[in-house]
Amino acid sequence: MAAYGLYSHIRSNRRRSIALLIGLFFLIYLLVYAAALLAEAFAGDASLDWLLNAAWRDFLMAAPFATIGTAIWIAIAYKFHQSMIDAITGGQEVTRNEQPRLYNLLENLCISRGIPMPKLKVMDDPALNAFATGLNQKQYSITVTTGLLQRLDDPEVEAVLGHELTHIRNGDVRMLVIAVVIAGVISFFAELVFRSLYYSRGWGGSRSGGDDRKGSGGAGAAVFIAFVLIGLAWALSLVIRLALSRSREFLADAGSVELTKNPDAMISALRKIEGRGELPEATSAIMEMCVDNPRSGLADLFATHPSVDRRVAALVQYAGGHDPGPIALPDPGDETEDGEGQADKPFLPQQPPASNAPGPWGNAAEPGPWGPHGNQGR
């Protein structure tokens, strides 16, 4: 893909992300108003206009507290979100000594573009997936599954690392983490309102100390409006989270090709990951950060990632890659030709191709020990 097109899209997405996140934050105020409207309706019947005005006065008093509470929530997530993600996924930070090939693949990508090296983590899971997290340079990390390491070769793993590194470079990770945090606040407020309704004793009568309510018959309409506002806030939060994810996957795929100069590796990695990326222990928020978030049927309407077919088609059209079609992989426990289980094989470097030319790696025109890093022979 042309550099101009790629980077202009990145800048455009960053602007849209900021606008969407501002809108997402204001959905919290929408929920606060809906809660105030419910509270007024439950406190006693009155005309709809009176209830709406009373709810607005309550909202103005509650808004500063909602803002402070949300800020505290974000501050806690900013400090501890990585620890919470690691606790859920079981990701463990690895060093060069523990994963030399994986570490070197990521380090070489970072050096080639002058990018600070993020932390590298591995989670013990047979699924084929990876994700990046963090809100700043000190926090950024890339987590890969053991299943991905065992079943993808070096160029494919390098392509996946390039994909996640692009998410970090483009600011996608930071924006998505913030969006997930704020959406979590919305979910918390919505659940709080519904639980309050569930345990409520009913309409509760008028307030003590006198009540100057005017008219009657508006409580039912007020409750209906409050429910509509809560549902609208929840639905819009989902739409915004989808908008923050779908277009970015195409850019991350393109960024991986830009880093590795190997579109076929990104395509074959996607084909191997296709349908094998579900992390049973991960929350939906974590799955949104992964290379692939598999969904099917009606659930695909709320998918945060484009289909693998669409992503591969884009790489074929714009990056000159070749699509091998769906790739069948043996079960992790199946026996290989040498009698060793595929799941037990370590993540080892590929052997250099045979060559009659002198030198430790054969002919200089042949792929080196890291596999092809370009489009030789095309």
Count up the domains: 1
What overall geometry do the principal axes of the alpha carbons give? elongated
Main beta-sheet strand count, sense and barrel state: 4 strands, mixed
User: What count of helical segments does DSSP give?
Assistant: 11
Mean pLDDT: 77
Helix content: 55-70%
- Sketch the topology as an H/E string, one letter per element: HHEHEEEHHHHHHHH
Low-confidence stretches: 201-210, 335-378
According to DSSP, the number of beta strands is 4
Instruction: Determine the structural class based on helices, strands and strand pairing.
Output: mainly alpha
Strand content: under 5%
Radius of gyration (Å):
26 Å
Order of adjacent strands in the largest pleated sheet: 1-2-4-3
Note the gap between the termini.
17 Å
Summary tags:
about 375 residues, mainly alpha, 4-stranded mixed β-sheet
Structure description:
56% of the residues lie in helices and 4% in strands. With 378 residues, the protein is mainly alpha-helical. It has helices at 3-43, 48-89, 100-113, 146-151, 154-169, 172-198, 219-243, 246-260, 263-273, 284-287, 308-319, and strands at residues 92-93, 119-123, 130-133, 141-145. The chain starts with a helix and ends in a 59-residue tail after the last helix. The model is unreliable at 201-210 and 335-378 (pLDDT under 50). The longest helix has 42 residues, at 48-89. The chain contains eleven helices and four strands; from the N terminus they run ααβαβββαααααααα. The chain has one domain. The protein has a four-stranded mixed β-sheet with strand order 1-2-4-3, with helices on both faces.
